[in-house]
Please model this.
Amino acid sequence: MKSITIHGIYDTMDKMIRKRAQKQGLSLNKTIKNLLEHALGLQQPGNSDHREEFIDLFGIWKKEDETEFKRNIRDLEKIDKQDWQ
Model:
């Protein structure tokens, strides 16, 4: 497998790549390879796992957040039978 060195990466680009790698829990190398594969249209055929494409939209809830959310939507889960007549 080949190795490539890229010179002259702007600070902004460097920060964005590092932030993405940290957010996805990947190494810089894997992150850059993923970015290149995506840019060049080289994703593996038949790969239906698109989680990485949306990873920046996901968050992780703490148990307290989940509890608060469920408490806040409790009224929305009640069914009023009169609404269905």
